[in-house]
Amino acid sequence: MDHFHYHQGVLHCEEVAAPRLAAAVGTPCYVYSRATLVDHYDRLAAAFAPLDPLICFALKSCSNLSVTRLLVERGAGLDLVSGGELYRALAAGVDPGRCVFAGVGKQDDEIAAALEAGVGWFNIESEAEYENLSAIAARTGRRPRAALRVNPDVDPRTHRYTTTGRRETKFGVDLERARAFFRRFGGDPHCRLRGIHLHIGSQVERIEAYVQSIRKTLALVDDLAAMSPTPHPIELLDLGGGFGADYETAQAPRPADYAAAIGPLLAERVAAGLKIVLEPGRMITANAGVLLTRVLYTKSSGTKRFVICDAGMHTLLRPSLYEAFHFAWPCRVAAGHVPRTRTATPDLPGLEVVDIVGPICESGDFLAVDRPLPPVQRGDLLAIFGTGAYGMTMASRYNSQPLPAEVLIAGAEATLVRTRETYDDLIAHERASQPIALPDTSSSAAASGPTVPGIPTP
Ligand code: LLP
Hints:
Elements: E1 4-7, E2 10-13, E3 16-17, H1 18-25, E4 29-33, H2 34-48, E5 54-58, H3 65-74, E6 77-80, H4 83-91, E7 99-101, H5 108-117, E8 121-124, H6 127-140, E9 145-151, E10 173-174, H7 175-185, E11 192-197, H8 207-225, E12 236-238, H9 255-271, E13 275-278, H10 282-285, E14 289-301, E15 304-309, H11 318-322, E16 328-330, E17 352-357, E18 366-373, E19 381-384, E20 405-410, E21 413-418, H12 423-427, H13 444-447
The site of ligand LLP has 21 residues, from helix 10 and helix 11.
């Protein structure tokens, strides 16, 4: 369910007509619907309410400050993966205790900043990372809580780039190593290793993959609690994210479907005091955003017909990187072309099969390939749907294209929540070129790098 709909042949986000927005802020531009964000968050929260989870919104899916603030005000904690995301999170006013900090490559200054801020849980991915966290914690005198990310070796059958729960990925440690991990670090005086973290992949439509991985992990939790001579009771189970978004109408399971399968596995444990964390990203944000782009030219080449737009792989990387499907449609259409569903093969008369491409100098620069579309011409506006997640956050300045604007709609009100970058922004960091005073790194102490200065608070 989302709040993007056609009214008299014109796409609206809530009560705002897309062409009016594009006229006001230009294109390309990301448009988010407040009502959709709130609705998606609330549905997820309601579905999982029996488990009373801490819902840590995955900031990486859509990290705009205003969107983050909105979800935080709604009750969300945050799933963070970098010092930059921590900085954003603090700027959005989240309680750091309601945040988890994940990622395979946490840097010392990021760890120090997260300790300083009082982040709720560190999700740990390796022995070496744990030792580093413990050492930094010992130096700062803070005693963080940590959850070990385990890799249950379950195949979520999603795109190979977004599969993380297989043994062959860089994420987490396998279940056997997890036992040894707790034996080795479970009694650490500097850090409280009390949690288990799981995240098997992204856009996981196979609910059974969650069931299998949770079952395997609960067996581990029981083993740890019974371990001798020192038992390791687990206080927190973080199930990660990965719940699917409907890129095509009614394609992915709904929050209630995931909750119905997962809830019964955990209900008794929750009643006995186990805390559950969820880290949803795209299920909340994907269909809460569209990308508006203007048609610059149309052209034919061989058998192909191209619609060339001002958005491309620099604005939305997912089609190029994962061959991801995003429904694309003109913002103004004749009555017969109002889409009833969002699918790759709309069953409507008078469509033309086109490639929707961008201005970037790469053949891999496309938003859609061989896609039936109502006839369009120069100046028309297109909407690329389902782009609220991993759209703007993966955008780049390739070909020196400034980053697009972001807009948040609430009813009839439109707010510019990120200004379009200017050409001056493109070169701002290059203006002050200056000679570098090179330090002596010949001794190992100097070569080991800076001691954790932390990250400034916003
Ligand atoms: N938790 C962890 C530890 C994660 O690594 C991720 C996503 C999430 C939660 C949120 O996953 P979600 O609920 O949004 O599926 N750029 C890719 C997705 C990469 C996801 C990386 N990790 C895409 O555009 O599909």
